[in-house]
Amino acid sequence: MKKTLALFLAMLLLLCAAPLATAEEELPTLRVLGTYNAHDPNNDPTATAIEEKTGYHVEYFMLPVEDDLQNLLMQIGGGEKYDILRISETMYLELLSNGMLLPLDDLLAEYGDNLTTLITKDAYTLTTGEDGKIYGIPMMAERASIDSGVVVRGDVLEELGLDVPTTAEEFKAVLQAVKEAKPDMIPFLTKNEARIGVISSGFGFYFDWNEADGKLANQIELPAYREYLAYMADLYAEGLLDPDIAVNNETTRTEKLSSGNVFAYACGGWTDSPLTALIDSGLDVELIYLPPFTDEQGNAGIKKQQALNNVSCIPKTAENPEHAVRFMNRKLDEDVFTYITIGTEGETFTIDEEGNYWPIMPIFTELRNNAWWYLNSFDMTCYGDMWMARTRRTEAVAEIYDGLNQYEALAVSNPTDLCPTLPVVAENKAALETMVNDYVLQVIVGVRDVADHDAFVEEWRAAGGQASADAYNEWYQNR
Amino acid sequence: MAAVTQKSGGDRVLRVINVALLSLLGLVCLLPFVHMAAKSLSGRAAVSAGRVAFWPIDWTLSTYRYVLQDDLFWRTFQNSAFITIVGTLLALTITTMAAYPLSKPGFKGRKVILLLYVFSMLFYGGMISVYILMRALNLLNTLWCQIIPLVLSQYNLFIMKTFFEGLPEAIEESARIDGAGPARTLVSIVLPLSLPSLATIALFYAVAYWNGYYHAMIFVTRADAKPLQLYLYEMITTTQNLYELDPAQAAGLSSSGIQAAAIVVSSIPILIVYPFLQKYFVHGLTIGSVKG
Fold it and tell me: Which of B129, B117, B217 is nearest to B157 (CA)?
């Protein structure tokens, strides 16, 4: 009797075990291609953490540092089999327009519960093709934040008895005063860019595409832009801008800034390396982050950066599209996500009483330095706070971040932030941007005259600007 | 007599000018390297502010510590060493084996084969076709895809061929009389006589392999299969995000200082090879120019 019972139990056990065994199916090795970063993605603590938590073994590949788009097209066109591509928006658009991507709607419906609930519908509109199908998992900027500003030397202001400027005219007066009192100093060091947000605020516009009378218009089409440009050209003509504006690069900007000979500097975000170098240089300087300038109506604002960071998509040549979606979905499970992005509380990060996330250094950097590279997307309800741990790793970076973001109350959303991918816009974007940047530089250094601005706007319209404006407006009216 | 001293005086002036000019030229070639070395040994503040010229300011070795502890640096260094050593040996073997028969006037089809080499020297199928070939051969992301495309340079082949043609036929004839076959003649007689040209070509190949990164940039998407030069190239074209290091480690480091240190370290191996091959090199440079 006992034997029969034992046999029966054993058989029962076997029967129960059988479905369990099939549930533990063999997971395929996934092949993931990402953009360039200076680390070995297959040999990184984050990669180990991801494999440990998801069960998937992943082989990672990287695009080269230059000509990455061409290389990507050659690889995908040549039939290279990747399961996931984690690429920039431009690359995504190029693949999409070449019909190289797999629509994800069915896979998302079946395997992507996290992917569909933790990422907003608004974000998905950015990766929805013209046919209404989703072709990519969007990863937005981690946190809507201000990523540009103008920094001035507070110690110099004090020495000369000047107030912090709050309008474009005051700023110019301060620069003039500095030039007079300190002829060796570069009054204002900037990159060559079409718009410096803090200054353009003084002229009443904040974005590339601005709303005027219910319509979207490019900044260069605005009357205010002509004034802004005349102002910048004037600064240059009076010797208030760095004369090397046309040839400066990151290294020369770093050298100039770190030598302590720059009064005002247009900073390009919280990871701006020349500014970081200045803060780390140990020079005894006080930095003041200027508020966005007030325009004649008394308004001020600055662009809130919340655009698409990158896109994870699946090429048609992928061998395991279903597993690719399951893998990306699993990475968003609450326990997995925190662990793979910022590690374990108490070991790599802490949360203070006010709910702020702080990194524990240097272990945070040792274990999760490159974690951002592995993210396909994130939980949009909470990652903005968690991510702050990454910005608080060194005093310099934290200082710049806080300096720029003290004007959070003035931050405004870009009207085109939620615009889906418009083929016409994508096609012309890079060329038009170069065209505008070249023109702006020419006007600033005096090769072209701002009086001919209308002629340039016509040129710009003919080169695809009008088509882009029409496409934007069609979307804007029907959104 | 007076005319002679006058002439030798003019000679002396010429020599002084010559030496001065050549030293200046040599210095111009050397200075960038000295500048890099000085930068790599200087403190961060001085490097960032661009104050370092040819002598280090605030001596430090932290940049070298940073470079030498980077896993990727060592990994790519090993890759480059493998590619250079194996590649050069293979290239020498193949070049010699191709050049020797082609140097014999009696070799049938010689003209056609030579024409094919010249043709492929002038016309090239383009990168895409090479990429597809490499993919079909399963060589992407390996070290071999960086060795094979460079394994035979037609230019070096012609140098070798011309050199072989210049060897006296009588020597090979006597070897044949002693009963040596073509292979034996090549290995025991011809190659020992060809050391100068072999050394020259070895150096050409070694430098090309050591400095090459173009193929890797196209064929390699895995970080652990990259060569050192690609690692350097990427390092220089991107800005090092030092804020991601821990503060203690980042103290005293600047990205240009790190770049300088990596450049200095990576140029040392090939600098070491030069003196050993130089005596052959100077001799070998003239080969192929005068046909014996």
Answer: B117
